[in-house]
Specification:
It contains seven helices and two strands; from the N terminus they run ααααααββα. By secondary structure, it is mainly α. Among the domains are: 76 residues, no CATH class; 34 residues, no CATH class. A two-stranded antiparallel ribbon has the order 1-2. A hairpin with a 6-residue loop joins β1 and β2. α3 packs across α4. The protein is elongated. It starts with 19 loop residues before the first helix and ends in an 8-residue tail after the last helix.
């Protein structure tokens, strides 16, 4: 068989959408793709499977206008899309979008201070940064270091010596 003799048949989703459940699952998957053009084309497929004239009449549009609105090159108004959904007996609902990776700009929660903890401002004064590295190290040999160790061991609310 030569390459020129082979025929490829057109695949039309509308031929396979027979029940309301199939239509609903199909549209849910299309909506999960989060692509407006894909949704527009899928609405055209669903309208053709249910009968374009029937959907157009229920949506309050004429059949030719509905065909034009759901073509790939078209830019239908949101009102038209909502009319088509309503004509099919469906409505849109919102669910939170869950990103696969957490956003970099998400707010960090403040750490809870437990009883007996030293407030963050006193801990910061107990730390020093060496010029050769950026790691913080505790002072231990100075009198300030002794005060820091005492501050950690003192119950919260009591004064420093």
């Amino acid at each position: 068989m030569r390459k020129d003799d082979a025929e490829i048949s057109d695949y039309d989703v509308a031929d396979y959408l027979k029940t309301e459940i199939e239509v609903r699952y199909f549209l849910e998957e299309i909506l999960n793709a989060n692509d407006p053009k894909l949704l527009q084309m899928a609405l055209g497929d669903v309208a053709r499977s249910a009968g374009m004239a029937k959907i157009a009449k229920k949506a309050g549009l004429n059949r030719e206008s509905l065909y034009k609105a759901l073509k790939e090159e078209a830019h239908p108004r949101f009102e038209t899309v909502m009319r088509v959904f309503n004509a099919m007996g469906m409505k849109l609902s919102l669910t939170p979008y869950v990103a696969e990776k957490p956003a970099k700009y998400s707010a960090k929660k403040e750490p809870k201070i437990k009883k007996g903890d030293v407030p963050p401002s006193s801990k910061a004064s107990c730390l020093k940064t060496s010029p050769s590295s950026s790691r913080a190290s505790r002072r231990t040999s100075s009198s300030r270091g002794r005060q820091c160790r005492k501050a950690k061991s003192m119950p919260r609310g009591s004064g420093r010596p």
